[in-house]
Amino acid sequence: MNKPLRRIAIFCGLLVLTLLIRDNWLQYVKADSLKDDENNRRVAIERYATPRGDIIVDGKAITGHATTDGDFKYKRTYKDGPMWAPVTGYVSQAYGATQLEAIDDGILTGNDDRLFFRNTLDMITGKKKEGGNVVTTLNAAAQKAAYDGLKAQGGKGAVAAIEPSTGKILALASFPSYDPSSIAGSGDSDAKAWKGLLKENNKNDPTLNRALREVYPPGSTFKVLTAAAALENGLYDSADEKTDSPLPWTMPETSTVLKNEGDLPCKNATLREALRVSCNTVFGKIGADLGNDKMLDMAKKFGFTEEQFVPVRSAASVFSDDMEPSQVALSSIGQFNTAATPLQMAMVTSAIANNGTLMKPYMVDELQAPNLDTIEKTDPEEMSKPLSADNAQILQSMMETVVKEGTGTRAQINGVTVGGKTGTAQHGVDNSENPYAWFISYAKQSDGSSPVAVAVVIEDENANRGDISGGGLAAPIAKNVMQAVLDSKK
């Protein structure tokens, strides 16, 4: 071969080698980044080329699919979308996915690595690719009771309900809400609906999952945690022991008198009586007597200060670690910097109802392959033990007194033992805005088991201030949720 031909051959060989290197670089090294590139329309086309699997509640799908024109063949549909949005989230051809739709996207689209063998067989046999299912722990009747109650109230609010013995989430409602079906496509109507949901265009912020992502001052519902701290640390030994609670009581290192909501029998009241009438002075002094470290330790045992993943992320509830004694007093009655999600307060209640054991909350029972085989099953898991069984039962008796003859009588259920605590939490600078109305509760069956613990919070900026109370606004919703769960057990 003459010299010019040899040079041409070498040059062509280098070109082929460069092409091979570039091809392997794109197919292997850059594969993931190209696949995830928002401008790669082929991935999106493939994603919507087959129907998604379903999200299941009580054996029935709360999701579906519809065919569309254009490159994207299928889009997601939702049944009772606004009611279930805090559970499902959304999946949209234009706006991505959130919550269960995002977390379990691989199962729902059929692309999860655990479905590889099945997908390979289907490809060989020519069977159409299918998505798997996400089976939730939710109770449809409880969810409906929660959502309908919030909707009837007309303001903003949220409900979380848990099965204490397992940690299964039975209801997770938020209001105002939105219909995920309205933004599932990529057309003009979807764009208009999306724009209307954005917080800058809608002050009600309907896509905010208030049950998981909003933290509120828990007000007097936090007093059950303060009572638990008093019992666990040996400050008091029983529900009916008189406390060291002067009236009036001046917060330590201040000249400020902590006030009760009215002329209440709080002087040296027992724990039971103090919880029944909701004495700020008693529980504020308990917090100050125990100190920041012991109160923080108890709050952490119940789940405060850390995000929860159920598997959707829940915001961390707040109890500060560097407070003056007066600030600890205010925090111990659910004010100052103390803030909690509805899920967190349902966790507190469930641990008390479960004789002191807090189970890790979760809302996905199992993941299913398209043929309904179980891919993954969630087993109940103990999260912590905030208080002993004996102290939990003391606290149960106190909460049951609240419902029998205290501020929570509107949560009573015929033939069922109910324990609860009301809360009306201050809101705004110098309590200038309408307060938040809280109610936490559990229902106990005749065998002593507790199938449900509930937390309800209502924020109604349009209500008459004097009409706002946990017992008046939130307790009836909690009652209906508990009743729905009890009826489903029959």
Automatic annotation (TrEMBL):
Signal peptide start-end: none
A UniProt-annotated Pfam family: Transpeptidase
Coiled-coil ranges per UniProt: none
Record's keyword terms, sorted: Cell inner membrane, Cell membrane, Cell shape, Cell wall biogenesis/degradation, Hydrolase, Membrane, Peptidoglycan synthesis, Signal-anchor, Transmembrane, Transmembrane helix
Enzyme class label: hydrolase
Domain Penicillin binding protein A dimerisation: 52-134
Protein EC: 3.4.16.4
Family: Belongs to the transpeptidase family.
This protein's name: Peptidoglycan D,D-transpeptidase PbpA
Protein's organism: Streptomyces fumanus
